[in-house]
Amino acid sequence: MMAEPTVKTIQASQVYETSKGAQIFRTPMQAFPFLWVNAYLVLVDKMVVLIDAGSGFGESNVHLEAGLEFVSHSIGRKIGFEDMTHILITHGHIDHFGGLSYICDRSEALIGIHELDLGILTSYEERVATAEAHLKQYLLEAGVENDQRETILDMYRLNKALFHSLKVNITYKAINLRLGPFEMLHVPGHCAGQVVIRLHDVLFSGDHILGRITPHQSPEQLTLNTGLGHYLDSLEMVKNWAGNPSLTLAGHDDPIKDLPGRINEIRQGHASRLTKTLEILEEPRTIADVSAALFGEVSGYDKLLAIEEAGAHVEYLHQLGLLRIVEVSDPESQTGHATFHYLSVRDPVTEKIRLF
Fold it and tell me: Would you say the C-alpha torsion 250, 255, 257, 262 has a positive or negative sign?
């Protein structure tokens, strides 16, 4: 049996120790007004490794600086950005990599990310522009009305100018998914280049597995190697690869102590949402209709999250053959894009199809 990591809590930061004596310091940071995110500083062998970097927005960098002060106080010697040897990014979402711009001005640490998210850091401006173009088309096809489309696009653009392209030193496949004692597993779904990282008996799950919510899903139509099908497959990969680590440290919220149990809960959450989506689509409806039925009236950034989440579930059911497109309309002929209406398929073949 693997030893339980010891835990000490001082204010918002926490300290963990792996079964082989590596020290892990968790620093919660306010990524955006509505979202907190975790970064982890790891001291192992002669390595000083930061896992994820916060958003770089608002107080995020201030909180990261405070976390380093906490580490210095805890170990009795100063640890700063200049002492970091590596920065490992779990996936290419800005709340996890946005702080790199601030850190790179103060550190020569080697930056690592998976190949499928490499361009997000090295060609950031291009990726933002193409992602917005894909989102515009998707919102039209989903049946989102004009004023709501502009609101959602404004949400997407929020804070995107805070980051700029930068150099990456390490890609994970190129190092065979291993860096010293750190082992990695590529788990596409929530993000194309999402990885989980294992150090001894502790797992860093990024946003692939969270303790309180089911991680956000978006359709693969928006970004290749995302989508609910990839995500569900990746959950099984983690279950087989990681086993039952003594502790799983997530990108948001508190640690997870029962990883297999949490994976089962997430799967059941998606099964319930898929079943409800099939029920909603017993009459022809758009993805926007499904979003409203699943999540009700939402505001702010949740508008974008809801329409993406609904689309991920509709897309997955359509891929399985459990939905078909029964109506294609083009309410704005000048756009050249259609709006799709979906309907549940009920026949002897589809009745035997398992959701996953």
Answer: negative
pTM: 0.94
Task: Give backbone dihedrals phi and psi of 5, rounded to 5 degrees, phi first.
Answer: -60, 140
318 close to 330: Cβ distance less than 8 angstroms: no
340 forms bridges with which residues in the sheet? 328
Per-residue pLDDT of 38-65, as tens digits, reads 999 999 999 999 999 999 999 999 999 9
DSSP H helices in the chain: 60-75, 94-97, 100-104, 118-122, 124-141, 146-157, 228-242, 259-280, 287-295, 302-319
Q: Give the amino acid at 231.
A: Y
Q: Answer for the pair 338, 330: CB distance below 8 angstroms, yes or no.
A: yes
Closest CA to 144 of 345, 331, 350, 348: 331
Domains with residue ranges and CATH for the chain: 7-142+155-257 (3.60.15.10), 271-352 (1.10.10.10)
Residue 332 amino acid letter: E
* Residues 103 and 53: beta-carbon distance below 8 Å: yes
Q: How many distinct helices (H) and strands (E) make up the chain?
A: 10, 15
Q: Is 342 helix (H, G, I), strand (E, B) or coil?
A: strand
Q: Please give the Cα distance from 206 to 198 (Å, whole number).
A: 11
Strands 247-250 and 202-206 turn out to be parallel
Q: List b or e across 78-115, with b for residues whose CB sees 16 or more CB atoms inside 10 angstroms.
A: ebebebbbbbbbbbbbbbbbbbbbbbbeebebbbbbbe
Radius of gyration from C-alpha coordinates of the chain:
21
C-alpha span between 342 and 325 (Å, rounded): 5
Task: Calculate the CA 95 to chain-centre distance.
Answer: 9
Packing angle, helices 259-280 and 287-295, rounded to 10: 120
Q: What is the pLDDT of residues 298-322, one digit of tens each?
A: 998 999 999 999 999 999 999 999 9
Specify whether the CB–CB gap between 29 and 63 falls below 8 A: yes
